[in-house]
Amino acid sequence: MFSRLGLSDLTVTLKEKSFTAIIGASGSGKSTMLQHLNGLLQPAEGSLAILNFHLGPNTGKNGRSERKLRARTLAGLRKRVGLVFQFPEQQLFEATVQDDLQFGPLNFGYSKQEAAELARKAAALLGLDDSLLQRSPFELSGGQMRKAAIAAVLAADPDIIVLDEPTSGLDQESRKELLELLHNLSRLQGKTIIIVTHRLEEVLPYADQYVVIHHGKAVVQGNSGLLLRQPELLAEAGIVLPPSIRLMLALSEQFHAPLPEEYLNPEKAAAWIKGLLLNNAAMSGGDLYAYKNGVRAIHR
Amino acid sequence: MRTRMVFGRYIDRDSWIHRLDPRSKMTAMLLFMCAIFLTDSYAAVLVMLTFSLFMIKSTNIPLSYFARAVKPLLFIILFIVIFHLAFERGGARFIDVGPFAIYAGGLEKGLISAARMVIFVALAAMISFTTEPDRLTQGLGSMMKPLRAVGFHPEKAALMVGIALRFIPTIFEEAERIWKAQLSRGLDLTGKPLKQRARLILSLMVPVMAGAFRRAIELADSMEARGYRLGAPRSAIHTLSWKARDTVFLLLFLVPLASVVVISIN
Ligand SMILES: Nc1ncnc2c1ncn2[C@@H]1O[C@H](COP(=O)(O)OP(=O)(O)OP(=O)(O)O)[C@@H](O)[C@H]1O
Ligand SMILES: [Mg+2]
């Protein structure tokens, strides 16, 4: 019925235990891709291989045994891949936040007590107050709802955590806390984090892998260095680089110096700039004038 | 989901039935209902069936849409047929099936009941297929105007019906959304006993209903935010106008009614 393809020719290979950021303009197919990761959507052509699960194309005409196998694969897959939806109000459905947080653990075979404990832990992890647990998820504020939706996925302790724009609707502080939480999960507990965001600057300090989606295709795939080396491609994909990155690009052009191998945090960036300036001063014969010129160039 | 649920949907095609006044279509439906009630023989069914097919053909909407509107009722229809077959003892003895016997009378009654149901649902679907929900409610409100004298608010009732119709697909979408959210967090029906499966599917109804109420409240808020007041007079962008073709359409429905009456008397 629909002749339009959501994704076509999309090939992505993601490393386990890594922190991957998926970026792309609105409507580029990010959410569509994420929904494939736990089998909510299934490819019409091509196949998915996640952990040791394999999903071939779903033609809708599969036989009975094949359908059974597929259902078993999906059940296993969903236990290990948790998906946080783009809109939390689309994800929550139970009468109380507590029930919602327990839903996953109960389905995955935990006892009632274990599930309640997992729910409480996940809520604490996200900084959700205990008093909110007995409320209806729809009585929460937008940001609280977002946190509840994330907690509901974390409660089931999946190995791969997939989040669709989890920071939108959160205040600055919570945003930073969430990203640090995710970073720690990947660093300390070996979780694989896959996150969609519209704010490149917020993931740059944490992500070690990037995928840029444009018109349903992955146009860039690699670390931050590779990403920043292709500003034209990014511009074409509708991604605006954050000011700090634009400054680095401009500096590297001004000083005819190569870009750093990877994203630099503010301290490292300052050191890199200092290096550029000193190098430049040395090249022009230790001339203090040239050094000042360099500083002016930065301010321009 | 979108393609599965067709009843209550408007299907945009160009046909003279689409352009009719909704009041004419609704009145015609009342006449048709009377005719359906009087249908009690194969001959009458034949008349009704021919007439319905003619009407369906005139809508320029493929027959498959009507088939899909009837499909959800298949179970009930089957039940009715079997009920008649099992318990009606009129007419000649037909076939013996174990301890049961099927009589010609039972078969006739069963088939006629089934046909009546299918024909009526198909024609009712025709109204929803060919009339935009807004016009349908407008027509309904206009037809109920005389009831104002007894303290009834036709606008309110029409609005209610309109919103109810509008909400049918929304509720299905809501159900699909919650289903997806539950699947994604490990809901798994395969390999579960039938009883447990039924319980899980039923438990889907609670959040769906809660969601419907939430949406209803949001809708009320957004209507009030845009100036809607209960009971205040409202104007309509398109006013209803009764044309000659509406009268012709209505008169056409007298044909099956008259034929069925004649067949029934003979
Ligand atoms: N249920 C649907 N039916 C048909 N087309 C859809 C559906 N959902 C999304 N699309 C289309 O698929 C394309 C990709 O949508 P998707 O939601 O994956 O975008 P996205 O990259 O997540 O965008 P955003 O950043 O706005 O969330 C869009 O063009 C969209 O219109
Ligand atoms: Mg999206």
Can you walk me through this structure?
Chain A is α/β, with parallel strands linked by helices and 300 residues long. The mean pLDDT of chain A is 87. Chain A is built from twelve helices and eight strands. In chain A, helix 11 (266-283) packs across helix 12. Chain A folds into two domains: 19-240, Rossmann fold (3-Layer(aba) Sandwich), CATH 3.40.50.300; 245-299, no CATH class. Chain B is mainly alpha-helical and 266 residues long. Helix content of chain B is 67%, strand content 3%. A two-stranded antiparallel ribbon of chain B has the order 1-2. In chain B, helix 1 runs parallel beside helix 9 (244-252), helix 3 (63-70) crosses helix 5 and helix 7 (154-184) packs across helix 8 (194-225). Chain B is flat. The model of chain B has no long low-confidence stretch (mean pLDDT 86). Chain A binds chain B through residues 1, 38, 40, 68, 71-72, 74-75, 78-79, 82-83, 85, 90-95, 103-104, 107-108, 138, 152-153, 156, and chain B through 3, 177-178, 180-188, 190-191, 206-207, 210-211, 214. The complex binds adenosine-5'-triphosphate (ATP) and magnesium ion (MG). The site of magnesium ion has 4 residues of chain A, from helix 1.
